[in-house]
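Input record (one chain):
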Amino acid sequence: MQQIPNVHEAEPIPEAARAEIDALLQSGDLFRYTAPENAPVTLLEQEFAKLLGTKYALAVSSCSAALFLSLKALGLPRDARVLIPGFTFAAVPSAVVHADCIPVLCEVGENYRIDMADFEAKLAQGIQAVIISHMRGHTSDMDAILSLCEARDIPVVEDAAHSLGTTWHGRNIGTIGQVGCFSFQSYKMINAGEGGILVTDDADLVARAVIMSGAYEHNWKKHKGPEGQNDPELAEAFAKWQNQLPLYNLRMSNLSAVVIRPQIPELARRVTDGLANHDYVAAQLNAHPHFHVPAPLAPERRAPDSIQFNLVDLSDAQIQAFSNASAARGVKVQIFGRSTDNARAFWNWQFIGEVPELPQTRAMLMNACDVRLPVLLTRDELDVILSVLTGAMSYTLAKEAA
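The corresponding structure, as predicted from the sequence alone:
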């Protein structure tokens, strides 16, 4: 009997983290602002900004916190209308609601990317900010999006939770809009269990975000410019905003930072391995008439740790049979629109008020499948997953024909 790989298992935390963790536990110095300088969170911010090629980074408790702080730091008025894709995780509209704004949803196509015609039409409906979710690492047409938004002076926040290591025309995703937000949750390229970080080149925006993240009194002085240097523009912004903004206390702890930092040198290798795994499985699935993995857009080089594919020319009963057969064989296939209370199905976001109808997005979600492909999987393990998927499909079709 073939051994089904554990697709929920992450890579071990690098050995280099152990000494840092032990030293930190011995000191009990877990709060980012206790050290006079060079606390682990501070070093992480400097290293991450350098990695992405931005001036500033702010590490926080989650990507959701980063999205929320980004919207608050933009200074949007209460009830500002924020355009988001209809295919994203519930944390995105939640961040909009937490920021006292109104989420407006636009259509997403069968390739999991924003429908640009609907996006442009929705921009005309009083939109004051945009969050682009690169959902499951799929990049929408950022050239068109930036052109449309810049012409209307609408700020763009990138939800790059699934896109650390992805590039667009060679430029890092998360650095294209005014601010980019990343996740360190367990199923991401860098794993701290929880955690997030935002990046930007805007000194005023990051100063506001730092203060609101919980830099009370003069703790903001421990935030520096590029590579730890004093930054006059940043100091001026901090002086302007001190005591002017509420504190939401969304800080990252030093313990999370010492888990994250040794993984940064592993990122390039993980991106390469993840893309190779994805493309190998995609090629095999695309050879089958009832599976379709959408191609990336031309400027995009992805960094995937999962695969999404559409089921083609199957009835509702066949789709359910395929899902059941895959699970019975040991590989759970999540079909976004058909699993109860899925947080990625927009009709389950009852907290946003009146949920719009997005027929194109709904149709996609009813056929779109999601399977994790951790970067540590071997070619043999990928073949096992493929065997389960294709075997489940063959069983489904034979059952229907019988």
